Amino acid sequence: MNNARKSAGARVTRVRPAGDIVAETLAGHPDRTAAELTQLAGLGGSTVAKALATLEKAGRARRHAPDLGGSHTDGRGSADAGSGSGGRRPEGVPARTTTKAATGGRRDRLGKGELTTLVLEYLVAHSDVDLGPTAISRALQRSQGAVANCLTKLTASGDLVQTCEQPRRYRVTS
């Protein structure tokens, strides 16, 4: 009897799913980064990241490339929106779509040897500076490990020369 009185006077609050909160926040604030959405929604970073991934899979959100500001839209935004570089892609960096929904259900996988070609072309375009795998992988938006493997392969073939051991730096041979 005593428990019945306590529950009768208690307020009932409903917990909204995080995905709904993030979707609502994104709809009200398109072209925001995940960090900004975290602040606006009042949720944790990993919670927002998971919700955004779910929204992307459902085609309700779209992620922009990091060199274009790294923002998300509610699925109605343009692919060139963002504040990072004014919508310009750095020279020598290929266009890349980051979600399945934006590519009609297929991922933008490279064919055999294509990453090696991209890495070599990037180094040729930036032949005035020694570059490491981290900088190249960020510019090309590809795996650092895969880029490092390409650099090793290109060095062994004589197309590149390793100019520094620690940190590893490479340059195109003349």
Strand arrangement, largest sheet? Answer: 1-3-2
**Count of the separate structural domains:** 2
What would you give as the CATH superfamily of the largest domain? Winged helix-like DNA-binding domain superfamily/Winged helix DNA-binding domain
Low-confidence blocks of residues: 76-90, 93-107
Instruction: Write down the overall geometry.
Output: elongated
Count of individual beta strands = 5
Percent helix? 40-55%
Average of pLDDT: 74
Helix- and strand-based class? mainly alpha
CATH architecture of the largest domain: Orthogonal Bundle
Tell me the number of helical segments per DSSP (H or I, 4 or more residues long): 7
Summarize this entry quickly.
This protein is mainly α and 174 residues long. The protein is 43% helix and 9% strand. It contains seven helices and five strands, in the order H-H-E-H-H-E-E-H-H-H-E-E.
Architecture overview:
This protein has two domains: 10-103, Arc Repressor Mutant, subunit A, CATH 1.10.10.10; 114-172, Winged helix-like DNA-binding domain superfamily/Winged helix DNA-binding domain (Arc Repressor Mutant, subunit A, Orthogonal Bundle). Helix 6 packs across helix 7 (144-157). The protein is built from seven helices and five strands. The strands form two sheets. A three-stranded antiparallel beta sheet has the order 1-3-2. Strands 4-5 form a two-stranded antiparallel ribbon. The protein is elongated, with a radius of gyration of 23 Å. It has helices at residues 2-9, 18-28, 34-41, 45-57, 114-125, 133-140, 144-157; strands at residues 32-33, 62-63, 71-73, 160-164, 169-172. Residues 58-109 are annotated as: Disordered. Residues 95-104 have a biased composition (Low complexity). InterPro entries: WH_DNA-bd_sf. This is MarR family transcriptional regulator.
